[in-house]
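Figure caption, in words: inputs first, then the predicted bound structure.
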Amino acid sequence: MSRDFGSWLFLGSIFTTLALEPDEPGRDRCGSCRACLDACPTDAFPAPYQLDARRCISYLTIETRAVIPRQFRAAMGNRIYGCDDCLAVCPWNKFAQAASEAKLIARDDLKAPKLEDLLALDDAAFRALFSGSPIKRIGRAKFVSNCLIAAGNSGLAALLPEVERRLDDEAPLVRAMAVWAVFRLDPKKALRLRPAALDSERDETVRSEWHALETSAE
Ligand code: SF4
Ligand code: SF4
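Bound structure (iron/sulfur cluster present):
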């Protein structure tokens, strides 16, 4: 937390052999505020000053390679790469200046991407679109699986054909989240597709998504 820059900071490290004098510890500047705790969509703060990273959407959409637990999917809404809601509500960021570093400024072509286009990305298109972006490091399968959760939360029937195509994706992580998203957009269709899908599906993660369909509305 910085008086000058707020809390929305990009953290970095410098390794050096210099003997540096340590700074004074930072002061508590939160007072009675709890805006970040109340804003968190997945209740990732069990108490003030404590974060359960396993519940944080930034961890879930960027860091973990495991299937995102069902309990968090609806709460993720349309977040497909990170979250930062806790930073957006922090009153200290009223005083912060926008970064002038070119690498931190949003690219025009990525300011309002269409979910339908993101769902259809193959590996080559994913790499081309996110060349030079940190999004590239999570890989196409993780990214598209995040987009499928957003599609499942969208309520947009128009996304169903593209979501359904992902049921045959080569990546099990993508197929798994496509199962969930199809059910969210059209439960009856998902239940109709299930028997044939289970006949041919060999991946245990995807099979468990088919078996768990009835809990996907939660
Ligand atoms: S980034 Fe989002 S999910 Fe993570 S702690 Fe902040 S508000 Fe919660
Ligand atoms: S929103 Fe900012 S000031 Fe308020 S509790 Fe969270 S970190 Fe502290």
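Residues 35-94+113-216 form one domain.
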